[in-house]
Target: 2EXR domain-containing protein
Amino acid sequence: MEVRLIIWEITWPEARVIEAAYSESHDHHAEDEYIDYAILRMTCRMSTWLQTDFGPRVLEDSAIEKCANPSALQVCQESRQLTLSKFALMRHGILKDRAFYFRPECDVIWLNTDVTDDIYYQEKLQKYYGQDLGRIESLLVEETEWEGSNMYPGCLGVFGGLRFVDILLDDQPPELMVTDDDTDQDVHVGNDSDDGQPSWTIRYLIRPELGFQGINSVGEPTEASNARE
Model:
């Protein structure tokens, strides 16, 4: 039994990146008309994202690479039950074929400025995905996009279950000497959770050419290739 469970886990995809985009679909209320729907989708493996600088991406871009749902969902009841214990289904309220499975503890969502600066688009995501957005635990953001940003309470407030903000650094990591006095500044963003407001932990990642390491919120280096597993 234990060996089989290990085998099913081995078949699971590595950590992946979710991104927001547009999907064109036929408007059933008007012949020959199409609507661009706000969607979320898998765009690539986390390792691909870390190893390649894709530059600015927009909502109209295609996914970077194909990301299939876990094959263990289709093998047998045992493999499916085990996989469903770790993966969650992200469902679009209108486009049923846009549903996908993701692993909250490993997969991250990346948002470009088309999303963070557009309240209307954020409202569309909330409308189409509802409570499913609350299952997302980690956000990936480029350092240049994070600096001076005011993403909360607007954009980040959309993800009620957010636990981590992973900042992908362009250069060497900052000094992270966390003490009782500066923990809130270096580790937590947002208000204190005792007030009923979300708070999350900042973690740092650096690209492979800078050492392929992840730097967590207390300054302890970890291998970036394993940081999301």
Summary: Residues 49 and 152 are 24 Å apart (CA to CA).
